[in-house]
Structures are given as structure tokens and as C-alpha cells.
């Protein structure tokens, strides 16, 4: 069920690209920084659907931190942002941003949480390590619909974000206007192309057997060894792979499920541990 406030339920929601409809409370985070072109483009687009609050890590030192910030206070700093959007940075990870935004910053729980638009596709097994998907999982645990959005291009200078907003507008409006099941979370990847060239949408799992990025080894003149991640540009053989379809110019959507216990195998593991512990 999509969380929509009573005013939105009572009114007919007519989404139009140039008309701002302030019905939903939307929380946005990002792993590329609060002034990255991707998060600014997404935030501006989302103002057409509701009241937007942006909270992002203050710098790269905190982006990949997967542990909650238990040993230090989170410092909240307001920043000026276009379109009158409430925007903040904290010395925490994207998942910290979502947890703080949900529990403390937004006036009541947000109706939807977005992470993005992040540079570089989050597909295959790489998505499981992404701070973006971890931020979406935090919203999932709060029972709030959420989506991580990434674009299949790592350089902002190669992206026309005005065209990208047109490409995803209908998808986002459908997500927020629909009656989603409880705890709906998605990993969405979009081609770096105009809407007319995008071949369609594919809903499929994240391919844990495929990786878009590979390490490249470099040795410096003084024999120091460095490894850099680069796009492998390899086409997976699995035709149900999100990596395969993003390379075929499709938008890929992968539903995310977070489980704290592997319930289907619980009895088997109980028996196994009882055998080795005598319990």
C-alpha cells in the first residue's frame, strides 16, 4: 500500500510535467553528493509530485560506511538548494540520511524515498554493494516505498539530465500514484539515452552471477600496485540479467526484498547446529 496523505486521497491527482502538485512527502538521498547533477535533476523532477527533502552525505568519507553511526553524533547542516527544496548534509552514509530523514527531519513519515540519480549503473552483483541500494533497504525496513535510480554512465558531462527526466517521468509518476504492496523497494537502472531510443522496461532480478565492473591493475614507475574499477563492457549470456538488458537500452527494474532471517531453511540450520553443538 502506498502511503498518501488524506488530502491526496481526496483529490484527483493529475500529474503534468510542468505543473507542480504538492501532495506527497518525498525524501531523496544520493551517493554522489548533494550538489551532484543527478540528485539535483531528480529532486527538481520530484517537486512536480510533492514536497521534497534532500539529505546527502557531506563528503565521500561517509558514503561507503555500512555501519550505523553509533560512536559519533550526526551533524546536520542546512544547505541552499534550488526550487526552495529543504536540503541538508550529514556526516553519515546514505542509509544514515534515510533513517534520520524518516525518523527526525520530515514532518511525519515520507510517502516515498528515492536514492539517485546516481552515476554508473547498479546492476548484477555490484548492486548488492551499492550505498544507493542500502539506502533503499533502510526505507524498506521502515515500511516506506522506495527506489534507487542509477544511470548507465559514469561521467556527468556525458549526460543530458533534461532528457533523462523526460525518460523517467511516466515511470516515477506511476510508482507514486499506484497502490504498491507493503514494503515495496526497487533498484532501477536507466540507459543514458533519449526517451525515443529507450526500447522499453524490463522487470527482472539483479543477476548475482554477473558484474559490470572489473578491476584493472596498474603498476607505477616506483613499482607500487594499484587497482581501478572499470566497465568490463562484457555481455552476459543470461537473458534474464539486468546487466544484459541495460546494455540493450532497456530500463531495468529489480524489486528488492530484505529478510533478517532465512526462514525457509531455518529448521534445516537448527538441526545442523544441534548436531555440532549437542543443543
Automatic annotation (TrEMBL):
EC number(s) from the headed UniProt entry: 3.1.3.5
Domain Survival protein SurE-like phosphatase/nucleotidase: 26-206
Residues that, per the record, bind a divalent metal cation: 32, 118
Cofactor: a divalent metal cation
Keyword Transferase part of the UniProt annotation: no
Catalytic reactions on record: a ribonucleoside 5'-phosphate + H2O = a ribonucleoside + phosphate
Recorded GO MF terms: 3'-nucleotidase activity; 5'-nucleotidase activity; exopolyphosphatase activity; metal ion binding; nucleotide binding
Entry's Gene Ontology cellular component terms: cytoplasm
Cofactor: record remark: Binds 1 divalent metal cation per subunit.
Keyword Zinc-finger recorded: no
Regions that span the bilayer: none
Top EC category: hydrolase
Recorded superkingdom: Bacteria
Coiled-coil features, chain-numbered ranges: none
Record localization: Cytoplasm
UniProt entry keywords in alphabetical sequence: Cytoplasm, Hydrolase, Metal-binding, Nucleotide-binding
InterPro entries documented for this protein: SurE, SurE-like_Pase/nucleotidase, SurE-like_sf
SUPFAM superfamilies according to UniProt: SurE-like
Pfam family, one: SurE
Family annotation (PANTHER family): 5'-NUCLEOTIDASE SURE, 5'_3'-NUCLEOTIDASE SURE
Protein family per UniProt: Belongs to the SurE nucleotidase family.
Task of the protein: Nucleotidase that shows phosphatase activity on nucleoside 5'-monophosphates.
Protein name: 5'-nucleotidase SurE
